[in-house]
Write a structure and sequence with these properties.
Number of helices: 4
Radius of gyration: 17 Å
Shape: elongated
CATH architecture: Up-down Bundle
Distance between the termini: 59 Å
Number of domains: 1
Strand content: under 5%
CATH topology: Monooxygenase
CATH class: Mainly Alpha
Length: 93
């Protein structure tokens, strides 16, 4: 019984951290929506987006190398969001 409980706790914790991690990575999508809806990337910092891209890429590599699914999955979601922001900046700057 103790082993089954530990497995259930681990599974719940992994799913919860994946959900929270993905939720945290929605920020770039909100920024991208604003850029594309306003058709303007005014006041969006290129440097901040490049740092964000570097950060999520490093986290993907770390999560993959350590086989930590929540880190890997949530940051893959994040990298696509940052790429969307960069695309919007390229189109509307």
């Amino acid at each position: 019984m103790h082993t089954i409980l530990n497995v259930l706790k681990k599974d719940w914790f992994e799913k919860t951290t994946i959900f929270i991690g993905i939720l945290g990575q929605t920020c770039p999508y909100i920024q991208a929506y604003k850029i594309f809806s306003l058709k303007s990337a005014y006041a969006v910092s290129l440097l901040s987006q490049l740092i964000a891209l570097l950060s999520v890429t490093c986290w993907i590599l770390y999560g993959y190398s350590r086989n930590v699914r929540p880190i890997t999955i949530s940051n893959v979601v994040g990298v696509f969001g940052v790429l969307l922001v960069l695309l919007g900046m390229w189109i509307y700057s």
